[in-house]
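Recall the central idea of this unit: under ordinary conditions, the amino acid sequence of a chain determines the structure it adopts. In this exercise we apply that idea directly, starting from the sequence alone.
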Amino acid sequence: MFRKLSIKDLYVQLIVVNLAIFLLANIANSLGSTFFMEWFAIQLEHPFLKIWTLITAQFLHVSFGHVFSNMIFLLLFGFYAQHFFKKQSVLSIYIIGGIAGILLSLLIGKTMGQPSGVSYGASAAVFAIMGAVAFYHPEFKVNMFLIGPVKLKWIAIVLAIFGVVIDFGGNVIGSLAHLGGGLFGMYYAYMYRRKGKNILGWLDKWFAKIGLGNETSTTKSKVTSPPMRRDPRSNSSLNLDKILDKISKSGMNSLSKEEKDFLHRS
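Accordingly, the structure predicted from this sequence is:
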């Protein structure tokens, strides 16, 4: 699970932004300011009055436990999302998956007597990335600290039980947001792998155009699975899934220089 981090990776940038806003929000709260709650969080009584909060709420956390758990799983699943899909896809799934989760929670929550107050946090976005990664490659094994190799599908199932089922009684809006984000991520992976279509390709292209993701080429609307690419400098065929399997079993240090170069460019 532990690996060398690079600020060039979008999932790392997302973690940095979330932590920075967490610190700023807590400093503001300690000074008696309600700025972040008023302008970043979704006001449940009038959720569309400040429409931008559908995005800004995904970056706002107040408690340490909330931000810590979300960032740990963003660290885990963001890495694999970046290599299973496109680098920009981490951000695309995060934003759109988060919005999907929020909209589901607002829609169903209203029929259940939606409470007043505010809603915020990256949980729906993280569940979207988790759902996409686990559905795309459910049998892929991840070396979990103190546990050992665990398949992605089991990690996702356990988190879904805690984040959707168990948490439902005390946090209806949050649980529905988790569910919506996870379902969107699964749909994204289904379309990507089974249908050969990147439904967020338009957003990937826009992120690439403004320089996010460190990609030199634009995202293709059609994708193949599993990804097989040829390294032009070595003339050898390298398979991304096999490299990731090797990482899960033996760690980054087990890769050859050729494999590390390929992984960096993927």
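The longest helix spans residues 87-111.
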